[in-house]
Design goal:
Helices cover 24% and strands 25% of the residues. Bound molecules: S-adenosylmethionine.
Length: 203
């Protein structure tokens, strides 16, 4: 479905509804609130689409990788930012490179898990969580679904309980906020001792 939507946009059709050509405001607000600075640490953007969020993290000083399973989106991202230092790759959340395990200081997941069928949510959330480095942070942005309510997706927004799926092994759910008038989750997870995500130079 996603590859079809990106290919359609490429052919002059409607652009994907989630893309508005700029970094996601919910990510920017989170980063600005803590004066986030990458300081050469590694960041990963899951389901990066055209790459605006990955470019944003790179501009904050992260060595950034973005991946998406839609080859047309990745090709467009490379074209859009020809001088970019972001690594843009085709990869599937459910089949990720082994060397990515526990590697990234910051992982940003925005709206990807909920775009997958509900029976894949737990596996996808755990696989995304496994990419976070010791002392690293996972930011999850998703739209909300009340516990027990049924939705006809896609998308299949996440319930509060589904956010717990990301907290696998020693990854701990530190903070969950309902933002955008209750329509979105913003959740922060990290490994090890409680610490601030402001891990690189903020005040
Ligand atoms: C709703 S869009 C969100 C895009 C972007 N993260 C954002 O917040 O605007 C979901 C993205 O996840 C990608 N995606 C869906 N399932 C995926 C999977 N299994 N592996 C990698 N990418 C996936 C889609 O191609 C699409 O670009």
């Amino acid at each position: 479905m996603f590859e079809g939507m990106y290919a359609g946009a490429e052919a002059g059709g409607a652009k994907p509804p989630w893309d508005y050509g700029a970094p996601r405001p919910q990510l920017v607000a989170w980063a600005e609130a803590q004066n986030l600075a990458g300081g050469g640490r590694e960041a990963l953007v899951v389901g990066c689409g055209y790459g605006a969020d990955a470019e944003y993290l790179a501009s904050l000083g992260y060595r950034t990788t973005g991946f998406d399973f839609a080859p047309t989106a990745i090709a467009a991202a490379r074209r859009k930012y020809p001088a970019s230092e972001v690594k843009c790759l085709v990869a599937d959340v459910l089949d990720l490179p082994g060397e990515w395990q526990r590697r990234f200081d910051l992982v940003v997941e925005s709206l990807t898990v909920q775009s997958m069928p509900p029976e894949q949510h737990t596996e996808a959330a755990q696989k995304i969580g496994s990419l976070v480095a010791p002392e690293g942070t996972l930011l999850v942005l998703a739209t909300t679904r009340d516990e027990g309510s049924e939705v006809k997706g896609p998308p299949w927004p996440l319930s509060r309980v589904e956010l717990e799926d990301f907290a696998h092994g020693d990854l701990i759910l530190r903070r969950v906020e309902r933002i955008e008038g209750g329509a979105w989750w913003r959740a922060e997870l990290s490994r090890g001792e409680a610490h601030s995500t402001n891990h690189a130079g903020g005040s």
